[in-house]
Amino acid sequence: MKFLSQALVVVCATLFGSVFGDVAASTFSPARPPAIPLAVKSPYLSTWLNAGSDGGNGGYLAGQWSQFWAGQTAAWTGMIRVDGTTYTWMGAPTGPALVTQKSFEYTSTKSVFTMDVGGLVEMNITFLSTITPDDQERQSLIFSYLDVGVQSLDGKSHDVQLYTDISAEWVSGDHSAVAQWDQDTTSDGISYHKVYRQTQLLFSETADQADWGYWYYATKKVQGLSFQSGSDTTVRGNFQSNGSLPNTKDTDYRAINAQYPVFGFASDLGTVSGSVSTLYTLGLTQEQAIQFDGATGVVPLSSLWTSYFSKETDALSFVYNDFANATQTAAALDSKISSDSIGAGGQDYLTITSLAARQAFGAIQLVGNLTKQYLFLKEISSDGNIQTVDVIFPFHPILVYLKPELLKLLLDPLFENQESGQYPNMYSMHDIGSHYPNATGHPDGNDEQQPLEECGNMLIMTLAYAQRAQDKAYLTQHYKILKQWTQYLIQEALIPANQISTDDFAGSLANQTNLALKGIIGIEAMAVIANLTGNTADGANYTSIAHDYIAKWQVYGIAHDATPPHTTLGYGLNDTHGLLYNLYGDQELGLKLVPQAVYDMQSTFYPSVAETYGVPLDTRHNYTKSDWQMFAAAIASTDTKAMFISKVANWINDTPTSRAETDWYESTSGAWPVNGGQFIARPVVGGHFALLALQSQSAAGFHN
Ligand SMILES: *[C@@H]1O[C@H](CO)[C@@H](O)[C@H](O)[C@H]1NC(C)=O
Ligand SMILES: *[C@@H]1O[C@H](CO)[C@@H](O)[C@H](O)[C@H]1NC(C)=O
Ligand SMILES: *[C@@H]1O[C@H](CO)[C@@H](O)[C@H](O)[C@H]1NC(C)=O
Ligand SMILES: *[C@@H]1O[C@H](CO)[C@@H](O)[C@H](O)[C@H]1NC(C)=O
Ligand SMILES: *[C@@H]1O[C@H](CO)[C@@H](O)[C@H](O)[C@H]1NC(C)=O
Ligand SMILES: *[C@@H]1O[C@H](CO)[C@@H](O)[C@H](O)[C@H]1NC(C)=O
Ligand SMILES: *[C@@H]1O[C@H](CO)[C@@H](O)[C@H](O)[C@H]1NC(C)=O
Ligand SMILES: *[C@@H]1O[C@H](CO)[C@@H](O)[C@H](O)[C@H]1NC(C)=O
Ligand SMILES: *[C@@H]1O[C@H](CO)[C@@H](O)[C@H](O)[C@H]1NC(C)=O
Ligand SMILES: *[C@@H]1O[C@H](CO)[C@@H](O)[C@H](O)[C@H]1NC(C)=O
């Protein structure tokens, strides 16, 4: 009986294989994300493989071109020749059959594909984008790794050649722009293609890609390595017919889209029986990174890596030779996030956090020098603003969890600009510039107005940092402006005027319950700050105001007679509700301003309005936000927390959206918002670490 059924399986498999071709589907672990991060390290190195069904191929590396997050093709090609037959393992070059993808797996830093090449050899393809919160030198380098392992699958030896290229599409979003390039070898034997926009447009973007800087695609110069630059058909054709490249340079510098120039490497691996691996690194060097309107007016700021390396190729060599260290450091971070996430919310929570890590860090960039560093953040996709306070706020839990000192480096430019009198309004600015990388401020005060939101955010995040870093001096240094913003909250927080909140796409509304709560928590945060810095009269006053307000807020903002009772979207609108995500600040700062009964009430309420993929943001629409759901989950009861986590993890696996993870989607279908735009690759997924940020409480005694 047993023997018979086994025999049957073999017969079926053979039939399927021959009659239907490749029917094998890849496995996806821990989930099939909407888009797979390939090289994601900064706002300008952000290349993805679309996976969701509304524009992706389901998550297969071969057969589809990779894209810059904004949707332009960034062609990255992989082919392999085994015993004279060529196959494609990455991208969609004309000609070769595709390898069979067996599995895909992601961790916080890696995307790993396993391929079966004609039943002859196996390939392990690892995309590694490091995250090094404790190491500014490595974090400042805008490079990503591609490691390709090949070994025999059938126990026999095979003749193998490996190929990869990038196109000039990587160097500008304007594909009619002229690209220029070169090929050379460093003194320590790293062979590289250097590609760039011929006319460098400093601090400019086209379709969100940088129009300046130099791209490097590199590998070790070993025996059997050959290279070529030239048109896509020429270079790829040479490999397909010969398995090697002629070591020639095309010097006809031309438009990115004119006989698409590509930059290829071919490696003759010879006779492969055991495992052989080939490492590539791909990255961008920009000496100048940001324009910043700081204490002395607008100045250019250098990329921080320039403080460690005097030449671009020195940085390139360092990165290439650092792979062993990078692998170990990444494995340590993967394992920390894995064990902490599983502890806080199980495997489903790890599915959520590990997908978010590279996307969150991929929106930030370290600049400055060894004396003074700044961290800048791009509001990717929603409008490109730089240092948006209400984007830093949903993002900030990942930094509170991994490295609170980096949160300080994000807040510093905002303080510096406003404290030096460059912003005329008494409330906090919304952002420090309308478009990355120009942090040139808003001297006219005409930035997007979210005064209540941003004053609350600044107070909460400043204290969150200071508590974790034990940095009272930071509170003293900024006391004056923090007090100014508190004054605004005292006037405006309890009865919020008709205004937008951070969820500006939902429109404006007076008396928003959740917005008022943020302001009131901000006042109590300032009470703590005042007490910590010896301003005890202020401390007593703000404490009494915040407690008075929170008592009134519970009367205005709660539908006590509803079944079950819940907070409302707006005061007195008893048949409305919304995610009360701003309650998170009370717990993050250890304030205990809001009674436990409010937490319990919301925990009981949310499951009663949950849809398939989550709890709607509020009663106006069925769409929701993943970041705010994780804020709500972090402070919810065990069961309600588990509900949020399981719905968001299921959404990741099921969503038809095919672009770098959106934070805004329909809770019913999991698709894009029905009546809205599309949010793509936004840093707010740093908020998916909300549960873990709560585990890094301040040391005892630092509350007051
Ligand atoms: C792929 O990875 C698996 C698991 O680590 C390993 O057993 C196998 O040898 C690897 N194959 C190649 C081609 O590197
Ligand atoms: C930044 O400002 C410069 C002028 O200093 C301008 O040329 C450039 O287009 C701006 N960049 C963006 C992305 O708006
Ligand atoms: C293939 O290699 C041979 C010998 O090196 C060379 O003569 C021929 O031009 C090459 N063909 C292509 C398409 O590169
Ligand atoms: C990586 O190198 C740094 C020095 O730059 C060292 O401190 C660290 O321990 C190394 N990490 C690993 C995992 O080797
Ligand atoms: C370092 O950066 C700070 C802030 O931009 C600047 O004031 C200082 O002059 C710089 N130091 C050096 C040595 O360039
Ligand atoms: C806002 O709420 C307060 C307190 O309930 C109320 O007096 C006021 O009329 C409300 N404003 C609006 C515009 O609804
Ligand atoms: C601040 O200190 C005052 C006493 O000076 C105390 O009444 C108040 O509760 C403290 N506030 C907070 C938030 O700790
Ligand atoms: C408390 O703060 C409010 C608002 O800033 C201010 O009007 C009031 O005078 C302060 N009270 C005391 C006792 O300092
Ligand atoms: C809303 O409910 C509260 C008590 O839960 C009640 O006092 C208030 O009158 C209700 N408001 C409206 C407009 O029904
Ligand atoms: C939410 O979806 C449900 C079920 O499809 C529908 O009945 C309801 O009208 C939707 N609500 C809104 C605000 O669109």
Task: Explain what this protein looks like in three dimensions.
- Keywords: Signal.
- Residues 109-340 form the Glutaminase A N-terminal domain.
- Residues 1-25 form the signal peptide.
- There is one protein chain.
- The protein is of the alpha+beta class.
- The chain folds into two domains: 2-288 and 300-329, Glycoside hydrolase, family 65, N-terminal domain (Beta-galactosidase, Chain A, domain 5), CATH 2.70.98.40; 372-700, Glycosyltransferase (Alpha/alpha barrel), CATH 1.50.10.
- Helix content is 34%, strand content 24%.
- It is built from 18 helices and 29 strands.
- The strands form eight sheets. A nine-stranded mixed β-sheet has the order 1-8-9-10-11-20-17-14-13. Strands 7-6-5-12-19-18 form a six-stranded mixed β-sheet. A three-stranded antiparallel β-sheet has the order 2-3-4.
- β2 (35-42) and β3 (45-50) form a beta hairpin.
- α11 (479-492) runs antiparallel to α12, α12 (513-532) packs antiparallel against α13 (536-556) and α16 packs antiparallel against α17 (638-654).
- The radius of gyration is 27 Å and the shape is globular.
- The relative contact order is 0.10.
- Mean pLDDT is 95; it is low at 1-23.
- One 2-acetamido-2-deoxy-beta-D-glucopyranose is lined by residues 238, 241-242, 246.
